[in-house]
Amino acid sequence: MRRPAKRLVSAPLARSTLPLQEQLYRRIRAVIATRQLTPGEKLPSVRTLASELGVARGTVDATYARLAGEGYLLSRGPAGTIVSPELQVDALPARAVRDTLKLAPEEDSGAELRPFQLGLPALDAFPRALWARLTARAAKRLSGGALGYPAYAGLPDLREAIASYLAVSRGVLCHATQVVVTGGYQDALSLMARLLLRPGDGVWFEEPGYFLARHALETASAQVLPIPVDDQGLDVEFAQEKAPRARLAVVTPAHQSVLGVALSLARRQKLLAWASETNAWIVEDDYDGEFHYVGRKLPALKSLDLADRVIYAGSFSKTLFPGLCLGYLVLPHSLIQQVIEAKRATAHGEPVLGQRVVADFLSDGHFGRHLKRMRGLYAARRDALASALRNAFGDRLEMTLRPGGMHLLARFPDAKDDVDLVRRALRHRLLPSALSAQYLGRTNDSGLMLSFTNIPEEQALSRAKALARALGMGAG
Amino acid sequence: MRRPAKRLVSAPLARSTLPLQEQLYRRIRAVIATRQLTPGEKLPSVRTLASELGVARGTVDATYARLAGEGYLLSRGPAGTIVSPELQVDALPARAVRDTLKLAPEEDSGAELRPFQLGLPALDAFPRALWARLTARAAKRLSGGALGYPAYAGLPDLREAIASYLAVSRGVLCHATQVVVTGGYQDALSLMARLLLRPGDGVWFEEPGYFLARHALETASAQVLPIPVDDQGLDVEFAQEKAPRARLAVVTPAHQSVLGVALSLARRQKLLAWASETNAWIVEDDYDGEFHYVGRKLPALKSLDLADRVIYAGSFSKTLFPGLCLGYLVLPHSLIQQVIEAKRATAHGEPVLGQRVVADFLSDGHFGRHLKRMRGLYAARRDALASALRNAFGDRLEMTLRPGGMHLLARFPDAKDDVDLVRRALRHRLLPSALSAQYLGRTNDSGLMLSFTNIPEEQALSRAKALARALGMGAG
């Protein structure tokens, strides 16, 4: 039997944009630095390794030569290559071990923020110092049973704080027992899809709609049915005619997640009546319901839910920050036990510290103040970016401002290939999103979704001009 | 249409051990305190509400009377009951709103720690001050992109720190790209089951075994096949004969999760050969591999995995604390992309702060020291509890000490109904677990699993005596 260390050397290389030679070089260094191949031990022959890895012999040859040059390996000609007997493995600094295990740079994702990037709150305006203070306090108090497994449904204090907040701010009147804390919307939707849907069950889905939500539904083997969105929101009449037997509808009633329109009251009532009559469920994704700038914000669809068919989903990713990974569901009474049971089968619950800090943030009144401040900030950033885009693009751009949401939707009548526009923008490290890519079916609709949340007013014009230049639509 | 607030009043009452009248009382107070029913508004009639709730009229009557007595409601005789027009809703303290939304006490789970309770590390010995310091530091540094969505596979620094730790401490040689951070073992196993199994696929499962793992597999519609565990661990020969076509084996090779035996080297090799030959997968749950007290700890099964069929699962719930909700997988190369894709469909990733603190804890060297200290502490607590049990029970008890693990297994030849023993212990707020309940099939095996991790040496004798008294086996 071959030793595991040799096996690691010859295990398939992972998909990566690192050159094969660099990958192999790092891997062998790691194997040596972690003492799995020790001084004097033999490596696989160049021919064997090349054939096992499916790479050219030259690649292995060059890697061995490089490592020999650095003193790791010793070539003994026809007798093969060994780990240098002189190598002082103990003298390799711990840092070197860590370096050799380092991820390729492009896998180190999640860190860089790009202009116009969707789905993020204003990260520069988050009250970091306050949050750090609350976190430090909560961490200090964590002891005894609180270190143990969290309740599956969430921290009781947090569930109560959420229920209070929803009653006052979203018109959702619920008992804390209906609130279940989740790891965010994706986690929540995926949980509900697994629980409520059997393979092939139909789901009304906004067309265009949020692709990660679609992905969660498809992963649960649902049949995702694209339902057009018009100026009144989801076209419920169309859906009822085409797919009356669907089991679930997933909607963003406050500001539709792509087009930004609100679901009209008439449509809300029709949707609720349909669910009630057919015993279907509705998932209301209210991720940006707080971010309304013109007139009063609309109460949640859930506030009209007389028949208890709406599963209300909230997320702290947009109202606080995404790295927190916390959200919540307000459940119909008939689903509470099932959902908690399903959480038990698939998770240990959510981390207790984050839940504690959010509970304190809510019940100490910080949350309300933070949301108010963000509404003001976003209103200003939205106006600034809208003006800047009009200024930079002139009549090459068409844009209808919606009263809420977290992005602008710009259409360019002279440039219909929005995927190509995105490609061009990416070359300049700008990250708009293509409207056409949000459609499940074919579409002639095209344009760019541009988030304004992370663009300070004073940068709006330069960002807009940079975009215009990147797209080849610059004024000058 | 009736107003939502009224609908809430008459929505079905949740299952709860609170008396119906108390539930209704709290609900109506909440509806008023959250201004969904305003002063002067009418409540449903006693008859209507009683019939909608399916409760006796007397219950509603008494609740209305109580609320009238407290000034919330005003009875106008035949004209019905209204919210008291004099009520100063604004003057209701915020605290009252929160109180009315409070959970029933028995739902406030996860807090109390009971003697002998399984599955918890020593919560009294966790380095809280150090942890709080690292957390405060990490929270202070959290800014910009780090507040955004975490990488699906986990924080790169954490993945690298885990890979370094595993190489040195568990003999598992892997690249950081193979490490995927999870929300703990339950989350990890559930994810792998959804990814690898089709409904009805067979899974070798230790008999007896860890019931929550079984629950995760059953939830993924797997066919859980109980495979006996003997003194060599999982009986691989038996499994190969009975169910050679199983798709997955889930094992705890270090110390079998119920009986505490180690999987022998011969069995390890047979298991790996089976997986390699049939293209089956193995999940290695190494939750307590670090907790070995006699002789050297065994390297992980994964360290022998030449064919890359073992999915190694580690958890910080036992080595740090459960409320952290973090664990990790080491994946075969062929599964990396699929797993990251599956995480993307079902979650946003794990909270960034906890990942940061664990990464710092590992790379600053605290983790190694902590594990060493815990090994010493557990060895002492294990010996102390074993002696104390022998002392308290005399020859009514049979116990074989295993070289590792987190609990003792005590059998009582004169008392074969272990579920009844647990029931008796519970009455004294002690929480042993019944051995027979860990079996999927019928069994004559019976006994108690008794965790020693949270029983300080100086309390061992009093706890043992309390248990003996509770079970009616006290010496005097």
Over the alpha carbons, how many angstroms does the gyration radius of chain A reach?
A: 27 Å
CATH topology of the largest domain in chain A: Aspartate Aminotransferase, domain 2
Q: What class would the helix/strand composition of chain A place it in?
A: alpha/beta
Figure out the total of helices of chain A: 17
Describe the structure.
Two copies of one chain form a homodimer. Chain A is 41% helix and 12% strand. Chain A has three domains: 5-93, Orthogonal Bundle (Arc Repressor Mutant, subunit A), CATH 1.10.10; 109-125 and 369-470, Aspartate Aminotransferase, domain 1 (Alpha-Beta Complex), CATH 3.90.1150.10; 128-367, Type I PLP-dependent aspartate aminotransferase-like (Major domain) (Aspartate Aminotransferase, domain 2, 3-Layer(aba) Sandwich), CATH 3.40.640.10. Chain A has helices at 4-10, 20-33, 46-53, 57-69, 94-100, 128-141, 156-169, 185-196, 211-219, 236-242, 265-278, 316-319, 336-346, 352-363, 366-393, 418-427, 460-470, and strands at residues 73-75, 81-83, 179-182, 202-207, 223-230, 233-234, 248-251, 281-285, 310-315, 327-330, 398-399, 407-411, 433-434, 448-451. The first copy, chain A, is of the alpha/beta class and 476 residues long. In chain A, β1 (73-75) and β2 (81-83) form a beta hairpin. In chain A, the strands form three sheets. Chain A has an eight-stranded mixed beta sheet, with helices on both faces. A four-stranded antiparallel beta sheet of chain A has the order 11-12-14-13, with helices on one face. The longest helix of chain A has 28 residues, at 366-393. Chain A is built from 17 helices and 14 strands. The interface between A and B is large, with 111 and 107 residues.
